[in-house]
Amino acid sequence: MSTTDERLRAEYVTDPAAAMARLAAEDHFGDHVVYERGGEWIFAADPIGTVELDAGELRITWAGKTTARGWSGSPAAVMNNVLAELPMTGRNAYGWIGFEFCAWSLGATGYLRPGTALVHLMIPRVEVRIDTTGAVWITGADPDEAATLADTVASSRDTALPQPHPVDVRIDTSGYRERVAAAVAEIESGRYQKVILSRKVELPFAVDIPATYRLGRAHNTPARSFLLKLGGLEAAGFSPELVLSVDDDRTVSTEPLAGTRAFGLGAEMDSAARAELISDPKEIVEHALSVQTCFAEIGTVAEPGTTSVSDFMAVRERGSVQHLASTVRGRLAAGRTAWDALDAIFPSVTASGIPKRPGVDSVFRHDRPRGLYSGAVLMVSPTGALEAALVLRAVYQTDAGAWLRAGAGVVAQSRPEREFEETCEKLGSVAPYVVRA
User: Could you tell me the pLDDT band of residue 3, with boundaries at 50, 70 and 90?
Assistant: First the structure.
């Protein structure tokens, strides 16, 4: 089968989210991943290979054949070795890692159930890219497929936004306020300084995930966005931050966000909330602790003296909320890989706790299993570059149902009612845009 690698010069896209949602909804190839980064949009589909890692088994599918075996060591080292051995011939890998991926590096494997999913990556045969000019590129498809995909992209033009279905995010069956109070007591006793606790909002209907992605992207300002269907899990989200980026020049970056206020309530209220955010001692302490942790973590894999902080305590707007934000960078040390850096930094400090080991222990005790929530969507290059976008502000769906999830950072000064309100503010980035199937 011949393939194309060409720019479709007749096609220019003014609404990439609509084009990506249409490609996903048409479901030409089954499993797929949509990933938005730096003005570029990618639709990756029709896996020629997959890698699935769970708490007891590694499964590799290539050219229609699946092999399964046990594994030992760290999940990051296993994934680095597997991807190095696969005949990817210049292709990227896309997929996700779950929060529970961190259990090995942080000594929490005793909390995991057998078969807990850790990683699901796919290596696509076909990619459709929309670049920063709006031009469409199709790679890996034969001419007939390319024509079909181009028609699908073209059909997304001038289509109306879908209509959402109301979701009540104030219903809480998880005892969230009580869990926050229990964590505050543990913090006051000196067990740790901070933990992020979350709550799940079950949806009483099936969700049109591609339509929700399109509508939600029209109302969000994410650092990255994603839409995926992999192995029975569907999700769409508007990531507020990068857990990790390792570029081809071996620069390692992370962008911790900590400290939150509502946004989108009007210029006067937004400005007042911003002023409150940048002067609130609780939020400042929470953010400074997160930056300090990220600085130390990057330092473990970076060349000595290259770790630095920029944009300290900038305010970044992310949909229905605004956050304190900073960027921490370093240069990856010789002999270290992007997966080593991910192992050092994951999970994001802004979705786990400080110090991270007892914070993660608290998450496993107080939160239900998280799965993709506060994990990451990955794009892995054959050159060794890697991006891991934090999975927050998302909707999730399996055959068992659909749900939303949001959390808040708990420190000694936390009040359970305020942390509950913060989860509502964050859920406001997704809940108003959920489209019923």
Answer: very low
Give the gyration radius of the chain's Cα atoms: 21
Listed in sequence order, the residues at least 6 apart from 200 whose beta carbon sits closer than 8 Å to its beta carbon are 174, 368, 403, 404, 405
Phi, psi of 233 (to 5 degrees): -105, 130
* Catalytic residue of the set 145, 241, 286, 422: 241
Dihedral pair phi/psi, residue 356, rounded to 5°: -65, -40
Contact 8, 151 (CB under 8 A): no
Q: Is the pLDDT of residue 345 over 50?
A: yes
Mark whether 241 is an active-site residue. yes
Question: Nearest Cα to 208, choosing from 436, 386, 14?
Answer: 436
Length of the chain in terms of residues written: 437
**If DSSP codes are grouped into helix, strand and coil, which group holds residue 279?**
helix
For the record, the structure tokens of 90 come out as 């210049």
What is the Cβ-side half-sphere exposure of residue 342, based on CA atoms within 13 angstroms?
33
Count other Cβ atoms within 10 Å, centred on residue 2.
6
d(CA 372, CA 390): 10
The letter for the amino acid at 327 is: T
Taking 60 as the threshold, does the pLDDT of residue 287 lie above it?
A: yes
User: CA torsion angle for 373, 375, 377, 380 (degrees, to 10)?
Assistant: -170
Burial 162-180 (b: 16+ CB within 10 A, else e): bebbebebeeeebebeebb
Report the interhelical angle of 176-188 vs 416-427 (nearest 10°): 130
Measured distance CA(407)–CA(419) in Å, rounded: 8
Pick from 42-46, 262-266, 348-352: least confident: 262-266
Cis peptide before 347 (omega within 30 of 0): yes
Highest mean pLDDT among 6-15, 270-279, 373-382: 373-382
Beta strand 224-230 with 32-37: parallel, antiparallel or unpaired?
antiparallel
**Backbone φ and ψ of 119, nearest 5°:** -145, 140
Instruction: Give the pLDDT mean for 285-299.
Output: 89
Q: Is the pLDDT of residue 352 over 80?
A: yes
Task: State how far the Cα of 234 lies from the Cα of 44, in Å rounded to an integer.
Answer: 14
Q: In the chain, how many H helices and how many E strands?
A: 10, 21
What percent of the chain lies above the pLDDT cut of 70? 97
Q: Give yes or no for a contact between 86 and 92, defined as CB atoms under 8 angstroms apart.
A: no
Half-sphere exposure of 159 (CA within 13 A, CB side): 21
